[in-house]
Amino acid sequence: MRATCALFALVAACGLLPVAPSAGAKSARASGALRVPKGDLRAYMHGIGATVDARDVTTVFFSSSGLPPRGAGADGNWTHDVYIARWTPQQRNLGRPRIFIRRPEAQEPVSVAQNDTGRVMVSFEDGWNTPNEVSQRYGVYTSGLKYVKPYPNDVLSGGHSGHAAAVGSRFVVFYSNDWVEGGGVDNLGTGNGVYAKTYDADGALERAIEVAPRVREWWPMIAGSPTRALLVWQQYVKGETYARLKVATLDPATGALSEPHVIADRVQYYTYAASYVPSIERFVVVGTDDKGNGFAQLVDASGTTTAALSCMPATVREAGIAVIGDRAFTPSQDGRLLHLKLTPSSVELAGTQPSPIEWTYTGSIGLVRSPDQLHWVATSPRGLREADFDLKAATAPDDRDQCRG
Length: 405
Known about the structure:
Helix content: under 10%
Strand content: over 45%
CATH superfamily: Peptidase/esterase 'gauge' domain
CATH architecture: 7 Propeller
Number of helices: 0
CATH topology: Methylamine Dehydrogenase, Chain H
Shape: globular
Order of helices and strands: EEEEEEEEEEEEEEEEEEEEEEEEEEEEE
Radius of gyration: 19 Å
């Protein structure tokens, strides 16, 4: 459950907000009263991901408070369910959505992962039937979404903000726990540590890892490769309106964790993402600093940064990163799609192009239609928004995009 302080008077006018509200407003009851800022777009839709079945049909998962989204209930509580919709590159848009998981209270933001056998893990915060304000829960399914270990299973009662990834045949859920009042966005507080749990292909727990326990570090993001998970999260800086961005890599087969370290000293709260790039065997991390400049880094399996781009247009909170070969694509706060060109030891802003849909901080993903075309699906207060990008239409970045002159 989340409570929102006010409904929108001008939903149609809502666009990207440069400083998004706290993602940790849901927390264990022990941490005190819920605090959710006014005008929170996540009350409508929050979280999106995709998997592919044996027939090469993509299933898009998203959390929404009905379709079209209703926003918070009359009591102020959030009411998201998890929906799915099918897509193939031959389709113009997603097929008709249907509910995949429905319970009282909210199941959001949904995160999905698919292992090397095709099995799927679905995970999210859940306000239903929990002794705490929320529980981080999961279910495991076949690629065709038949039951293996179906929802509801607890990652942790009271856990929140979790995201899932697959590493080989295993799954990893990276999540936060508890809540500390004060500081953070709008002085709403911070999470109280980040943790990981690893699961086998059947959804059985293998290991629990304390990544940064019982400290003011939270909003855990994750990306998976065939052998490692990259863990990315933010560290509270007392008295400041920015966070430090930290990373570590995890070997789920052994539980070995690389030394957590800071890769950006002044990151805009919650404004970072990560993905794996198989063609160069690197993770790519994008984010935005407190001055409004975007950045990108490549990280190897040991957690070492092998390349960095210190300035590009500001990225969008909770936006996905689409990967085609040695290129990565992600939205920018000024309404464009960024094109990054990657090698194991370099990252450059190769181009940009305008987006026909507005970006918000509630989640979006890029689906590959062809080597030169992306189909982007974005959540919004008005429902899903979809757009095609002809990647050949990109233009070269200008000096301002690269902080020159």
